[in-house]
Specification:
The complex is a heterodimer of chains A (about 290) and B (about 250).
Chain A (H helix, E strand, L loop, with lengths): L1 H26 L7 H31 L26 H28 L9 H5 L11 H10 L6 E9 L2 E8 L3 E8 L2 E9 L16 H17 L5 H13 L24 E2 L6 E2 L7
Antiparallel strand pairs in A: 1-2, 2-3, 3-4, 5-6
Helix pairs in contact in A: 1-2, 6-7
Chain B lengths: L2 E7 L7 H15 L2 E15 L9 E7 L5 E7 L5 E7 L2 H7 L4 E3 L5 E10 L2 E10 L2 E11 L5 H16 L9 H4 L1 E4 L5 E4 L8 H25 L13 H11 L1
Antiparallel strand pairs in B: 1-9, 2-3, 2-6, 2-7, 3-4, 4-5, 7-8, 8-9, 10-11
Helix pairs in contact in B: 5-6
Classes of the chains: A alpha+beta (about 290), B alpha+beta (about 250).
Protein name (chain B): Mediator of RNA polymerase II transcription subunit 20
Pfam families (chain B): Med20
Keywords (chain B): Activator, Nucleus, Transcription, Transcription regulation
């Protein structure tokens, strides 16, 4: 490696000398035509030329002294520089066409989605009706912390369920609900409005810095899906406190998640899962497949 | 880690174990389960060299491929009191160093191995039990991973077992969970029902030991009854009765 470096430095010196020499030539004499300056110019040039010659010899010697490397040098990404550049031999074109198609599709879909979303207002936090009907805006999203604490303590929970409330996001509360030895749920509040629910198994960790990871068990992922749809069902902007209370009651019915057979087919297992759906009013257990049939 | 139940499968006369396992595997696959590798549980027993004044003790060393980094050992002093220990895999080397106090009973090394299936959150293992390369019977392990208390999910597990085995499984909890003795605060042994306890990997291992002990006991009985003292290696079909004994217990 040292030799190679020396050689490269020598080549660099040679190049810079050659360049200086040519610059010198291009500058020429000062044009006065005085014999003295002309002589000086020629003399300078000869000096430089001699230097170039000696350096050229040096480079040749160094190059001769170099050994052929036993293996190819690893050059990182620079190796790609010297690769095949003929367009026909790189399959760029089909890829390009594909990505164009994708972009087209994405554009189409996002356009449709945009239209759809504009028609159906899914935003729950900020109420539109209030503006139209000239009512006071609902306060479901900016309640004071004391109110939430009071609300959660008022929920009369069965002895097997424990609540743990903390506030990692400023004033908004997160409640970790542990239902017997069956499951854990993290309820993320925004004011008194339930924003998100994560369901996990009893032996899984549910910490405040890991509220959004899904459970590793299929059954709890399914329960979480149902918990989200129930969250939307119980949402009520006019009576936010009642919504939270009925939601928690519904959630508590999961204590017999593995214990009760489906009310319709009287079996425990369907597709490898217990009855994961709880009826929103009667709290009766159903399989996902049995619930609407 | 969830509740695990072991269920011996009675071998019908005239059928080989491999045939039955193949058949059960096909049933599981058509049910929608996926094949997910192999498993192995083995058990080696060391007996303490008798010294005056102390009764002989047995140390059972078990490995379970579901917990590949651990070695499970259970000390049994013969009076029903068991001390369980979970150690790193290097525990095996320690046992090798202790040959002066504990000698290995090589001829009782017993293992259960076979295919592992996953169906939803269930893990089902179809194990064929072999002792000294001789087939002893079929032991089916079923685990429901999300649940850690037997009383919550026993009915589910039972339905699942009956579903793919096609045999009747008793409604009561398996005997392992109902007949555990523990030490109470006064140092006395008392019966303790385990079905409401949190399930631990050690429970799986203890269940395996219980079933392995049954298989071994039967061999010893046969050895006593047979004309030669070494009739351990009976014909392959014999184990059908072995499983019958196991079935009677659960």
């Amino acid at each position: 490696m040292d030799k190679l470096n020396l050689t490269l430095t020598a080549v660099k010196n040679l190049r810079s000398n050659v360049r200086q020499c040519f610059e010198h030539l291009a500058d020429g004499t000062d044009g006065e035509g005085v014999e003295e300056s002309r002589n000086k110019f020629v003399h300078d040039f000869q000096d430089r030329f001699g230097a170039i010659n000696s350096q050229l010899r040096e480079v040749e010697q160094l190059i001769n002294g170099l050994q052929v490397p036993p293996t190819a040098y690893h050059l990182g990404n620079t190796t790609f520089l010297a690769q095949e550049t003929s367009q026909d031999r790189q399959a760029l074109y089909p890829q390009l066409v594909n990505s164009y198609k994708w972009i087209d599709k994405v554009h189409d879909h996002s356009f449709l989605a945009f239209n759809n979303l504009n028609q159906n207002t899914l935003r729950r936090s900020y109420n539109y009706c209030s503006q139209k009907r000239q009512r006071l805006p609902f306060s479901s999203f900016n309640n004071d912390p004391d109110h939430i604490d009071k609300l959660l303590s008022e929920i009369n929970h069965p002895p097997h369920t424990s609540y743990n409330v903390f506030r990692p996001f400023g004033s908004n509360a997160v409640a970790i609900v542990t239902i017997s030895n069956v499951l854990k749920a993290a309820i993320v509040f925004k004011g008194v409005l339930i924003e998100w629910v994560t369901i996990k198994g009893y032996d899984e960790t549910l910490e405040h810095d890991d509220l959004w990871a899904e459970s590793r068990y299929e059954v709890f992922r399914k329960v979480q899906e149902h918990a989200h749809s129930a969250m939307l069902h119980f949402f009520s902007p006019t009576l936010p406190d009642l919504a939270v209370k009925s939601y928690v009651t519904w959630l508590n019915s999961h204590i017999k998640l593995f214990l009760e057979p489906c009310k319709r087919c009287n079996k425990y297992i369907a597709n490898g899962l217990p009855p994961t759906w709880r009826d929103l009013r009667t709290l009766e257990p159903f399989h996902e497949e049995c619930r609407n049939s | 880690m969830g509740v695990t139940v072991l269920q011996p499968y009675p071998l019908p006369e005239g059928k080989s174990g491999a045939h039955i396992i193949d058949h059960l595997g096909k049933r599981l696959l058509s049910l929608g389960a996926t094949h997910a590798g192999q498993f192995l549980v083995d058990c080696e027993t060391f007996i303490s060299t008798p010294q005056h004044g102390t009764p002989t003790r047995a140390v059972h060393v078990l490995h379970d491929s579901e917990f590949p980094a651990s070695t499970f050992s259970i000390i049994d002093n013969g009076t029903g009191k068991q001390v369980a220990l979970v150690a790193d895999a290097i525990f095996d080397l320690l046992m090798l160093k202790m040959t002066s106090t504990f000698t290995s009973k090589k001829q009782t090394k017993i293992e259960s191995r076979g295919a592992r299936f996953e169906y939803g959150d269930f893990v089902i293992k179809l194990g064929s039990v072999t002792m000294m390369e001789h087939f002893k019977g079929i032991l089916i392990e079923i685990e429901y991973r999300p649940c850690i208390t037997l009383s919550y999910c026993w009915e589910m597990i039972r339905e699942m077992l009956q579903g793919f085995l096609g045999i009747n499984v008793a409604k009561e909890y398996p005997t392992y969970f109902t007949t555990q003795t523990i030490m109470n605060a006064m140092g006395q042994q008392q019966l303790h029902a385990k079905q409401n306890d949190l399930y631990e990997p050690m429970d799986t291992v203890k269940q395996y030991l219980e079933h392995f002990t049954n298989y071994r006991k039967h061999v010893q009985l046969h050895g006593g009854l047979g004309s030669s003292g070494l009739s351990v290696n009976g014909p392959v079909l014999m184990p059908s009765t072995v499983v019958g004994v196991g079935m009677g217990r659960s």
